[in-house]
């Protein structure tokens, strides 16, 4: 990852993946696709876990 300040006020910082970081795109496609396909189940599980903590 590279970063650089653009010289703006207020200060901001931009990030860009390097070639090495971009090479992870194929490797991460499987987990990303799985997460997208199971988002409703993931949300439900997170809500259930939050409720358990609240009821603690």
Automatic annotation (TrEMBL):
Alphabetized UniProt keyword annotations: DNA-binding
Superkingdom of the source species: Bacteria
MF (Gene Ontology): DNA binding
Keyword presence, DNA-binding: yes
The keyword DNA-binding is annotated on this UniProt entry: yes
Protein name: DNA-binding HxlR family transcriptional regulator
Organism: Nonomuraea roseoviolacea subsp. carminata
